[in-house]
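Structure ticket #2291
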Amino acid sequence: MSMTRFTAVILMLGMLTGCATSGSGWPSFAKRDTDTRQAKANRKKLNDPSKLDLAYAKWQEQLGNTTEARERYQRVLHDEPQSIEALLGLARMDQLAGRTAEAEQGFRRALKNSPNNSLVLDALGQFYAAQEKWPQAIDALKQGLQVTPNDDTIRFHLAVVIAKSGDLVTAKLLFVNSVGEAEAEYNLGLILHDQGKLDLAEQHFVQAVAKKPTLEQAQYRLSEIRVEKETKNVLAGTNNRPRPDMQAPAGSLPSSTNLLPAPVVEHRLNPNDMLGIQQTTAQQLPPNAAPQSNVAPAVGVIPATTPAASSPASVFNPLTTGTPSTDSLAPQQLEQLRNQR
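Resolution: structure written out below.
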């Protein structure tokens, strides 16, 4: 009896050990395959599995999980090849991934399957707007609005595209009809601000606050844009005031400086001055040496070796080294000159 119990215990331990070993030894893909089959079985039990997959795909798209969203959109297309929402979802995934050509093909495929679907036309218009292809975007959105004239979402998207294309008047009417007057001014201000047109943007924000003082977004944007403009002015060094010293060349006087002409005192040489110059020049020169100039003669000037033409006796150049004329000297000056010789 004891041997029988001992044998039973050994067999039970062996079975437990084998189970544990077998469980740890299964390949990893075996469990995954089992889970996949179980998931498919559970999916078949759902009344509308494609609808659940589509909702999950949209949720993952909003979260930014494009890989998971693409997988679910493809699953919906596998079950329903004509699903417009799945086609648009895959086109958006291609657009986000930078595959512009594939995205356009996806939008066009959806439009081919449902040419009068305002949802498809709206998505196609927004795709072209992202590429800044304004005429194609406006055309698609206008078609969508013709299909559903009361769709304020499409009207709003059309207003945005038209405003970005430069037609603010038409865009404002569409904005007013879709969101209201104050909100229309606010949206125009946002678009102009993004385009770098700060002055025009500020005017629309002011109008938005005036029409609806409780519009906090407009008040915030108005304060923000004024700070931005002031900062740019400070960095530019203008501060909305002209600065002459920023416009004049370096070292020049400001334009507001009144310059007065300086008085010119004319000094005429008298005979004593000329005699002193003559004596100083004679002392500095060596004997029998003619004065030479270190300045090169200008073009057309007669060389120093060329005899100069005679000048009238009444003209006297104090810088020459010749003997001055004695015709204009007083008797006392003539006497001084004779004593020096």
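Closing remark: The two ends are 169 Å apart (CA to CA).
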